[in-house]
Amino acid sequence: MGGMSSLQLVLIDVGNSCSRIAAAKDRTLIEPISVANTDLAAVSSEVLRHRALLDADASKATVIASVNDEFADQLASALSDQLSQEVYRVGNDLPVPIQCDLAPETMTGVDRLLAATAAFDVLKQACIVVDAGTAITVDFIDGEGTFHGGAIAAGVSLQLAALHERTESLPEITPAQPDDEPFGRSTSQAMLLGVYSSIRGMVRMLVERYADHYGAFPQVIATGGDAESVFASDELIDRIVPDLTLLGMAIAAEHAMRAAAGDGDED
User: Model pTM?
Assistant: First the structure.
């Protein structure tokens, strides 16, 4: 990536069940879309379509961040063949530009670090990032931009699937916001109310715990595929930013480009 005055990107955030893809110009994300990891050809096709959205005369790079390395390896191999160009991996090729205060040998998911990087880059102050996907993570970043870790719990779909699979009578249902009533008046509504309330309650408890430890109440940013449905009406959440991880990938690529160009100041 060294020596380029500008760089346009195709960003691929490979999750547990789907991949989130976007083109990026100067940190502006273009047409972000999610594609199920069950179809490698469809994911590859979307990557190529997004690459075509970039300027014809621009320097281009394709970047993958992954919490699902098996699928990411397959995708990187397929794209390298189709693009005849190296595919960069966050963590291996591109470091995540954030300091961490974690237990030794901790292997934190790159998606959490990227979302934290983007949140602090935007806010420039202590914050809490709630990432609502297959898993729910609630992470704390202090006022110096240091990532302190947080909590991990099962997300909406995972909780609903567990209720169905581990009981005799609870049905398989699709995630949806529960009705605006105090009681779940059907089995499905009771399940939805229980799961959504458990997530919101957990987040509220953790935010209060982090704030008490830090001595101040940080801003809370929600991101991830379920953020809007779970937190849209939650006054605890200061803002919802759907694609913090993708933004963090663009920032990581920008920092790597600066370092390769010999610019030691990456603030």
Answer: 0.90
